[in-house]
Amino acid sequence: MHIRNLLLIPALLCICAAAALADTAPKSANADIMNAQGAKIGTAKLKAVSGGVQIMVKVAGLPAGDHGIHIHTVGKCEGPAFTTAGGHFNPTMAHHGVNNTMDPHPHAGDLPNLTVGADGKGSASVLDKDVTLGDGANSLFHDGGTSLVIHAKADDLMSDPSGNSGDRIACGVIQK
Fold this sequence. Notes:
Blueprint: H1 2-22, E1 28-35, E2 40-49, E3 52-59, E4 65-67, E5 69-72, E6 114-116, E7 122-128, E8 147-151, E9 168-173
Antiparallel strand pairs: 1-2, 1-9, 2-3, 3-7, 4-6, 5-8, 8-9
């Protein structure tokens, strides 16, 4: 009986070590969203949930209408054009948009349009099943980080590479 218990010790140590490593992944993240003039216009809260990352965005001071919103591949938001944020977060090299005919799924960073009311305020809550706050290729915390970018126009949800969503008008670096 003692020998069997001794053989279980290494297995238990491995399980405990794996659990400890899994606990090091952040459970949440956030981004302060800035406009082209450098003023804070909103926030994004990200939370690790079963099946992906829940992204909750609240903004004010934007033009009314639908706006493309995407996770971009670089955690850098230098205005006014925010080109430092790079392209869409796309670790699987997919085509853009949920309605594209080339690929069964979109970029990992593609999100539904953000609707802004006549008062300039908008909010959205989206589950992104293709990203993680933990480790791996789909991690929002890969080397160089990621950012959340809001575009001037609606995303058509199919045109590569960015859904014809126009200029980048707001940006926030995603942080632990």
